[in-house]
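Lab notebook, bench 4. The sequencing result for the construct came back, and we need a structural model before the next group meeting so we can plan mutations. Quick request posted to the team channel:

Model the 3D structure of this chain.
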Amino acid sequence: MKLFFILICNLLYFSACAQQELRVFVERKKNGYILYADNNAFCPVSMALDLNLVNLRFSKGRKKIFVIPEKTEKFMLGELDAIYPSMPDKFSYNFYSSLGNINNIRYDEEYEYGLPFLKNKEYYLVQGYQGSFSHQNDNALDFIMAEGTEITAVREGVVIKVVQSNTGSCLREECKKMHNYILIYHSDGTIANYSHLIQNGSKVSAGDIVKKGEVIGLSGNTGFSSGPHLHFSCSVILGVEKYQTIRTKFRIDGGNKSEYLQEKNRYIKTY
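Done. Here's the predicted structure in token form:
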């Protein structure tokens, strides 16, 4: 079995996705302004707000972190009130955001995930958690799969992002932006990432509710990759623009037990 040298993309694209889905805007009021946010994502978005104020007071005081619920319009962040109404005022702001709820400090560590492929199929795990090639400090899994292999949801959830327009792959820095992937948000706030899919290889769209074991896409070899495979990881949000991949237990042996998968093993799904 040839061992592919596989590198993964930085989880910061979770933040880039959130920036695309979030809009912050201002409405004028008497002696001040109101700050609002629209969240077009299918999951909560956590946002850090930086304000630069002249002759204005923010109604939320020192609060700088907000969680905007999924598919929410005109979420009020706070009001800016003139300190001296007869004097000029001005302000500017920047914001940073990430998919997920920063207030979710716990997740279900005992959940039993399903293997990400069809029943009666068997695949080789070339890299595991903290893998020897490119998974140092990363809890991710790489299954060797031929391009076009059907992959399944390891857990039920809502699809929050699909990218499937890319075609190329390489081991250069620019290829980190060329992978196709599906992100699925779980009930405990974790986010599953299925990466390196083929072009137009997604069977789902953002907003779809998927069941555990449902076919969601086709594996491929796009992005920062040297061979066909499925890269899977599950992440929790630790802070705005900060994530951590976590180890997850998978059902094996006919589904009768669960364990953390081990690198260099073959796994068959019989349930």
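The chain has two domains: 17-99, 107-268.
Will bring this to the meeting.
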